[in-house]
Amino acid sequence: MIKQFYNVIGVMSGTSLDGVDLAHIHFSIDTGKWKFEIIESKTIAYSKEWLEKLKKAIHFSQSELKQLNEDYTKLLAEIINNFIANNQISDLDAVCSHGHTILHQPQNGFTLQIGNLPQIAQYLNQKVVCDFRVQDVKLGGQGAPLVPIGDKILFSEFTYCLNLGGFSNISFSENGKRIAFDISPVNTVLNFYANQLNVDYDDKGNFAQSGNFNPILFDNLNDLEFYKMPYPKSLGFEFVKETVLPLMESVEISVFDKMNTFVHHAAFQISKIINHKQGSLLITGGGAYNDFLIEKIKFYLPEMNIVIPDKNILEYKEALIFALLGVLKLRGESNVLSSVTGAQYDHSSGNIFF
């Protein structure tokens, strides 16, 4: 579907479980240059029941996962239909949806994003482009990160693009190729400890800031094998559950001290990845609201020009870019970069249902 203008909705649910991000976007392309406008955007929080299901799903049996996928597809369709109705959106080219990652094991040739069943197109009565990761894993790739092609097309003026969500991931150009990979856990760990303090997240990093830095835990975290591995590489919640949290729990210090030390760790790992300490760094994702984390990134990268964009881009950049991936799929153009995921070649990934 080669056109110069596209009217689409991008849908994203991240590992930090903040909710479902929806963005209504107009894309236009003129002489090879893409432009975008976010018309409306909203995040729909999960109910407590759904939060518990999504947190526990990593332990589900095959039959439980099958039922969860069917139920979540219905939930997602309901959320999208309400967004369309409330904003009186019409004449859509497509709904472009990531789904929600439950299992991500590219080393075993497997990744599962629920909410991508063919029935979603019927529930919505719309063309749907979804399930962007599976094909890449089948081609030997990590299936992640997928956002970098959007960084390359829409945000090329920045030296580095950093997302601070459940995990931190970065993308940048090196020797004419786009490079991108996951750096470390961020909100998956910080939210775990915030939950122990009976809050959903650490507002502005105030709890972490009130704690004390623990050099032993800091060194142990930085010594994890994942940080020594070459890219392409990606992270799933399995890494947090099986490796990071047991290490955090092995040190008898307060929750505040653990959060403080982990913020230092996340910021330090980001600084290690950035080879050129000067330039511009675009930071998006929920972690950009963590003032203490941003302060520590600036501490470890004192010469970097750090840019935090307006609320629409900051909160909905992933929904925006998955909308772009959907549009590229409709056009039959590559939307996944092998230089990023390690797949055999660049490809046009995703399913189109209507």
What does this entry look like structurally?
The chain is an alpha/beta fold and 354 residues long. 40% of the residues lie in helices and 25% in strands. It has 13 helices and twelve strands. The chain has helices spanning 48-56, 62-86, 119-124, 134-138, 148-154, 187-196, 206-210, 215-222, 237-249, 255-273, 291-300, 311-330, 338-341, and strands at 5-13, 20-30, 33-44, 94-105, 110-114, 128-130, 160-164, 167-174, 177-185, 279-284, 304-307, 351-353. Strands 1, 2, 3, 4, 5, 6 and 12 form a seven-stranded mixed beta sheet that branches. Strands 9-8-7-10-11 form a five-stranded mixed beta sheet. Helix 11 (291-300) links the parallel strand 10 (279-284) and strand 11 (304-307). Helix 10 (255-273) packs across helix 11 (291-300). The protein is globular.
Mean pLDDT: 95
Oligomer: single chain
Order of helices and strands: EEEHHEEHEHHEEEHHHHHEHEHHE
**Tally of contiguous helical segments:** 13
From the helix content, strand content and strand pairing, which structural class follows?
alpha/beta
Radius of gyration: 19 Å
Instruction: Report on the biggest sheet.
Output: 7 strands, mixed
Our measurement of the CA-to-CA distance between the termini, rounded to an integer number of angstroms, reads: 14 Å
Count of DSSP strands = 12
Helix percentage: 25-40%
Q: What global shape is seen?
A: globular
Which segments are poorly predicted (pLDDT under 50) over 5 or more consecutive residues? Answer: none
- Beta-strand level of the residues, as a percent range? 15-25%
